[in-house]
Every structure is written in structure tokens, then in C-alpha cells.
Amino acid sequence: xxxxxxxxxxxxxxxxxxxxxxxxxxxxxxxxxxxxxxxxxxxxxxxxxxxxxxxxxxxx
Length: 60
Description:
By secondary structure, the protein is mainly β. It contains no helices and 5 strands.
């Protein structure tokens, strides 16, 4: 699962952040506050459907 940033409506992708290296599925991204985002997604080591993960991302 990789989170990517575009500031030009998806024409270019300036930055990326790997959240999970293994299989992953459905995700949802929310803004928690001015300094944090949250990403909820399905992930696992053998299958994307082994568990649900919530990860906070700090904004630089």
C-alpha cells in the first residue's frame, strides 16, 4: 500500500510513502487534523484480507 501525493490533479506524483509492503486492498484516507492524516486499509502477508490496519501519517 503506497500513499502518493499530487498537486496537479494526478498529472505528476511528487512524493510517495510506503505504508505496507505486502498484499493490500481497499483503503480510505482521512484528515485527522492540521498535522495528521489517517489511512485505513486491508493488509496481510499472504492475502490482502488478513487484517485491517489504521496508520497515522504526519504531514511535513
